[in-house]
Each structure stands twice: as structure tokens, then as C-alpha cells.
Specification:
12% strand; single chain; alpha+beta; globular
Amino acid sequence: MRLSDMNLDVPVGDERRIEVVANGLPLWHGAQLAVDATIVSPVARSGAAQAGAAERPGRALANAAQRKRRTYPELVRARRCRLVVFGMEVGGRWGDEAVSFLRFLARARARDAPALDRAAAHVAWSVRWSVLLAVASQRAFAASLLELPLAGECNAAGVPPAMHELLADSR
């Protein structure tokens, strides 16, 4: 979605885009969420480690999150919208913000489960979504290497699994 199409103070001609805009989620008091998905490599084009990445695991993700916050200062300052940088490293490491976001989403989704099943549902939703997102990120990375078009919105919607299917799949 273009930032100029959101309820933000940006010029109409602003062409910056955000990957996901989510409304109505019970996170952060119902704030609109602008999710920027990013995949980074801890290795530079030259084959050397990114600055600080060899000494501190996740440094490439932290640098990417800082760049995203500089790219979207309107989202950082917005009162009714929250920027979530969903960062992953090539090779599988997830950013702290991505992990927290996924856990918050799973906890919110598990609230619909019966009280005795909530903890199991929270774990099951976390496992399900982390697997789906890990596969999607690796497909996107492979598509970028092969210069293929991204799949778009494949499997973005549909009927969620029944509780017994969800719990059986998470084992």
C-alpha cells in the first residue's frame, strides 16, 4: 500500500509503499499496523561480514530495522499507526520484533480457543505461522536469486484449520 493512500501526513505523490497494513487486530490497543517485511544478509556482496555482524548475532537485522525507521519516519511518529519491522536474515535468524509480533498474534488468536486449550493453541498458532513465514521468506529469497517474479498473494486467504487439525499439525 502506498503511504500516500494511508491516513498520514505525506505528499500525494509519495511513492513509498509498505507491504502489509492490518486493521482491527487486538494488538497495541487496536492500532493500525504497518508491517514492513525485510530479508537481509549478514554477509556483504564482497563476501565479508556486514559491519558488526561477525561480533554480534542479529546485527544485520538491527541495522535493517534502523534503516526502515529512517525510511518511514511518519509511521514511527504516527499516533494511530504502528510500524512493525518484520525482519529475517538469510539463513533463518528472525529479528526480535518479528518474534514478538508473531507471539502477540498467536496469543490474540488463541483467545478464541476454550480456556483449557489456550496454551496449546498459542503454541500451535506460533508454530504454524513461523513455518509458513519461514517457507515464504526462503521462496522469496530464491526467487530474487533466480530473478523470478514473486508469487504475489498465494495462500494469503482461506479458511483457518479447525482446532483439532491445528493441534495435530503442531506436534
